Amino acid sequence: MSAIAAKPAGNAGAFQPVASVIAIILAIVFIGVAYLLGNMGIFSGGAMVPMMTLVGIIVGAALIAFGVHFVPVGGAPAAMGQSPGIATGVAMLATGAGLAGLFGGAWAASLGFGVALAGGAIGGGLMMAVTCLMVNISYVYGMGIPAASGKVAKDPITGDSQAEYKSQGTEGHGLPFISYVGGVIGGLFGGLGGTLIYVQLLNFYNASFAAVGIVGEDAPVLAVGLAGIFAIGMFLVIAVLSAYNITGTIEGPHDPKFKRFPRAIVAAICASGICGLVAMLVVAVL
Amino acid sequence: MQEIIIGIGVTALAGALAAVAGAAEDTESNIGSQGDPNSQVQLAPQMGYTHRIYNKAISGEPPAYTLWVTLACGVAWAFIMMNVNAVLAIIFGAVLATFVQGIYATTAYLGRTASLSKFGQPVFIDVLKSVTTVTMGHAFVAIFTTVTACYLMSTVLHHPFALPLLGVVWGLALGAAGSATGNPYYGKERQYQNQKFGAGVPISASGNIVRYAEAGQRSSIDNGFFTAKLGGPASGLCFGLIVFFELWRTVLFEPIANGWGAVVAGVVIILIFMIIDRYVEVWARKNYGPYTAAATEA
Fold this sequence. Notes:
Radius of gyration of chain B: 21 Å
Largest sheet of chain B: none
Low-confidence stretches of chain A: none
Number of domains of chain A: 1
Number of strands of chain B: 0
Strand content of chain B: under 5%
Distance between the termini of chain A: 57 Å
Structural class of chain B: mainly alpha
Shape of chain B: flat
Number of domains of chain B: 1
Strand order of the largest sheet of chain A: 1-2
Shape of chain A: elongated
Number of helices of chain A: 8
Order of helices and strands of chain A: HHHHHEEHHH
Order of helices and strands of chain B: HHHHHHHHH
Mean pLDDT of chain A: 90
Helix content of chain B: 55-70%
Structural class of chain A: mainly alpha
Largest interface: A-B, 85 and 83 residues
Number of helices of chain B: 9
Mean pLDDT of chain B: 93
Largest sheet of chain A: 2 strands, antiparallel
Oligomer: heterodimer
Number of strands of chain A: 2
Low-confidence stretches of chain B: none
C-alpha cells in the first residue's frame, strides 16, 4: 500500500479533550509566568506589557496553525499527478508563504500596527497566489492534465464536477479552484500570524533595550534581527506541528482532514506559549 | 521621485535575478533528484528497477536552499563588514555555499544509494563524478543570484532585515517556489514517460520510472536537459513574479494612504492571478475534456 492509500488508524484525527485541556492550562500558566516575571522586574515594562506580548504571540501562532490547514499540499504523490495539491511538504510551503508575508510585514512595520499586519497577510497571500497559478500552468500546459479533486464530487465554489476529469488509478491531480482559494487564504493567515508575532516581539525588544539603556544605532538593528529570527523559528515550530496533524497531504478547506484544525490550534497555543517565553527571556533584566 | 524610480529599477532587477535563480534551482534539483519525485528514484530499486539516476534529497529543497543561501548571505555580509567590495564578497559567499552544496550532494548520493545495496542498486562512481559538478554549477547560479537580490533589497530598498535574515526568507521561498512548480514536471512528465501523456500516474505504477535514454542508460544530466525546457523556466517565472510583485507593490504604492496603498495593490494582484488561474482551469477542461481510459492494444 502506498503512503497516500493508507488511511489513518482509529481516531487519529479526533479531538482529544483531556490533552487539549492540559495544553490550554499550560498556556495559561505560561501567560501567568510572563505576568509574574514582569511584576518582579525581570521583564521590563511592568506586568501587563510582557503578558500582552505573550498573548499576541499565542494569537499569532493560532492564526498560523489555522492557516496551514488551508494550504493544499500533495507532497510526492502530487509530483506524479497522483493526488491534488502542491508538490512539496506542508511545513515548507506554509513557512515559505509565511516568511514572504513576514518580509512584507517587517517592511511595513514602521507605518503602524494595522498596515504591518495587512501587509504581512497580503505578502503571504500573494506568494501563494503566484505559486498556485504556476502549479496549475505546469499541470495544464506541461503535462496536459486538467485539475480534479478526489475528495469532493463538485467544487464548492465553482460547482464544477470532478470525478470525470480524474485519471484512473489516482486520487486526482492539479489544483481545483477551491484548493487555489484555500492556498491564498492559508498564505493570508500565515503572513498575518507571522507578522503579529514579529511586531509583538519587536515592540517588546525595543522597549526592553530602551529600559536598560541600550540605545544608539545598533539597538533597533539588534531588535529587528532578534524579532525576525524568533518569528521565523516560531513559524517553523507551528508549521511542523500542523504538518503532523495533516499527515502528508491535504487538498484544502474541503478536505476531511481540514476538520482537524482545532487540535493543531490547541497544540500551537501551548507550543508558542513556551517559545514566546523563551524569546522574551533573551532580553530579561537579571 | 528619484528614489521611486531607482526603487522600480531595482525591483525589476531583483525580479529578473529571482527568475534566473528559480530556473537554476529547479534544474539543479532535477539533476540531483532532490525534489519530491526523489521518492520514486529511491523506490525504483526496491521494485526491481535499478537505475543511474542521482538521488540526493535528505530534507527537500526549501530547507537545503535556506541553508545554502543563508550561508552565502552570512559570509558575504561578514566580508562586506570587513570593507571588502560587495561584488567580491557575494562571490566569496556563493562559492563557499556551493562547496557546501557539493559536499552535501556527494554524501547524500552515497548514503542514499548505499542504503539500496540490498536491492542490487550499485553506486556509480562515474555518475557521482559527472553529476555532482553539474549540480554545483547550477547551485552556484541559483545561490549567487538570490544573494544578489537580497543584497539589493537590503542596501537599495532598505529592508530592515540584515542580509543573512533576508537569506533565510528568500532561500526558503526559492526552494518552496521551485519545489512547487518544477516538481510535477520532473516527477510526472520526465520520470513517467512510459505512461500516457495527459493523465496522472496511476498509484500502481509507483517506482516504475523510465531508466533508458535515446542511447543507453539515462543519467541525471539528461533530466536537466529535459526539465530546463519547461519546469525550470516555470519555476523561474514563479519565483521571479513573487519577488517582483512583493517589491513592486511596496515600492510604488506604499507612499499612498500611509501604506494601505500597497495592501490594496496586493489584493488587486491576488485577484488578477485568481482570474488567470480560473481561466487556465476552464481552458484545460474545455480543451482536454473528461478522462478517457487508454485503449488496450490487441
